DNA sequence: GATGAATGAGGGTTCATTCAT
DNA sequence: TATGAATGAACCCTCATTCAT
């Protein structure tokens, strides 16, 4: 028991529990048990349950920002950049899968502060995506569209395939499956060539 | 007060509260107050809080099934059917918006049973979509793809644009905006014509 | 169990426990056990522990006021009035001994609000006494003196003989003993007649 | 840091905190911080918090005994002795104000042992006073009276004027004010000369 | 049948005490 | 020996559920 970093142990346990059971259903007793630590120990590092939660969100925010900053290369083609960043997010996910899950697990907390945390997480990615899409439209790489809506759709689709999917399926999608489908929806569309491009008016 | 259907009153109140505050934050006291009945009365109709919740999911499931059955016309083109059904879901949503919200409000329940309820709701739609996609692929209307993944993506995208979006934006998207973007992603893709179809190998 | 007034039961139990053990050492579990009531029941009547405490102070304040109002007869001699009121307070004590004890049991509560409550209790009596002493001085019934200090001394002496004494002695003082000694200190003094009235300068 | 007496440091810090915040509100963390030692260090000198408290009471008891022994001069007049001792207590108080405050701060401790400590402190002074009063009665300097009750009244009055008063007033009473009032109550009484000495029978 | 007062298990938090360093 | 991180019992409070009316 000598070299264990109890703070990290607790953060990991809490992250796992928040992701798996949500905020309310995560009890400090449970976190303590998962971390194999006394309940009181948690309070040596975090003032309240909310504090513990905030810290997790903050850490995720920070790592996310790094990933995004590293992934966007100004001069590269739109889809190159998109998939490089999404790929990086995927790595981020495999390291810290639970952080991403948090995004959806947080809802009924009530405190504006905690909710803000989650929204900031989402907001950060949306901002990056939106800027990237605007730039893609400006360069003529993608069709004119509402960048805010498309950014939102991209994020949600990404989360759906990387995280939500695992809630109802035992086997996660492979990195290739995820990239192929994102490409399918956001680059090419499903429609077979040769089809008419508008549904007949009903 | 003679002829009021107390059971319906309670179901309506609980639905509203579950949708607005989530499962945990909905107290039986609150449901009783909204329904304007005694707290004990709830227990004459529903054995537990979970029972009450299950009943709401079950009812939603039933109505959903009707919507789907009515919307799918075997002979019509793929995208005709898709948008007719999604449009119908939109109507279903405006009538029972709260039911759909439930899908995300249920997360931290913990009890496998309650989660099952939500998954059944989701599963029903997925099943319909998957069958529809398989049929579309078979008829050559859409590209060959994994119907399960695509169905899942469609549902999530639909929920994202109709429901999730409203959590961070004051104004909901219009029905037209929703349909246009679904079409954009699932029919045509974002890429401008004239572009190369694969990202450069990294 | 039919006709019991649970609110009164709880108030009585809490009063007893606050008086005996003090604010902090009184646990809601203890109050519940003394009152023979479920812990949750307390919270049906009182929002918090502090609320419960406040209610007790408030009730004491009210009864105290009645006693004082009834005991002071404007025209009567000073010591008649003094002993009538003190006698009445003694009755008040035998009915509600615990309320008076509260005055000293409240100290380390911390919340300004709760402390106010106790100070109000003390302040009410002090106010009455001070007015009465001023009137006694004005009529020449007692020597000129600082009414505020004398009022404070009277109250503390009264509480010392009626309440504090019992903390270290098994048998309370009799009503006669209390009155005799109050008379001794506040009317006549201890000094034997024939003595010189000032201590020799040291 | 070599030559500091850690035990004394801790005793001083604890005394200050007990006096200022009371027994319950004094945490071992706080004592450690005030004493500028590690929390564990306290436990090398004192087995428990109660032990620490007891030691403080014992020390106060000892100093008190010295004060009393020095103040009583067998041959002097009663009131000379009384005021010399009370005066000395006042000095004792200005040196160790906190010890005296302790007397009232200890109330909600609950443990019979700790309460005993306080009672011993009180008992010591009472014993001295009682002996002195008995002697005064024997010499005819003061009226026959119950020495135990009078001693108790004197102590309480003394504490009331020196300590309790400060809790509700910004300015402490001066030494002269305290002595004058003690004389007023215990020597001469409040009643104007020329008054009848018994209240009219009610 | 309808009610809501009563309940107690379980939640977050504090703090006296221990013990590995 | 001195330390303070770690601990868990015990605190106050919430709320799903029961049951006498």
UniProtKB/TrEMBL annotation, chains A, B, C, D:
<dbReference type="Pfam" id="PF00440">
    <property type="entry name" value="TetR_N"/>
</dbReference>
<dbReference type="InterPro" id="IPR050109">
    <property type="entry name" value="HTH-type_TetR-like_transc_reg"/>
</dbReference>
<feature type="domain" description="HTH tetR-type">
    <location>
        <begin position="4"/>
        <end position="64"/>
    </location>
</feature>
<dbReference type="InterPro" id="IPR023772">
    <property type="entry name" value="DNA-bd_HTH_TetR-type_CS"/>
</dbReference>
<feature type="DNA-binding region" description="H-T-H motif">
    <location>
        <begin position="27"/>
        <end position="46"/>
    </location>
</feature>
<keyword id="KW-0238">DNA-binding</keyword>
<dbReference type="InterPro" id="IPR036271">
    <property type="entry name" value="Tet_transcr_reg_TetR-rel_C_sf"/>
</dbReference>
<dbReference type="InterPro" id="IPR009057">
    <property type="entry name" value="Homeodomain-like_sf"/>
</dbReference>
<protein>
    <submittedName>
        <fullName>TetR/AcrR family transcriptional regulator</fullName>
    </submittedName>
</protein>
<dbReference type="InterPro" id="IPR001647">
    <property type="entry name" value="HTH_TetR"/>
</dbReference>
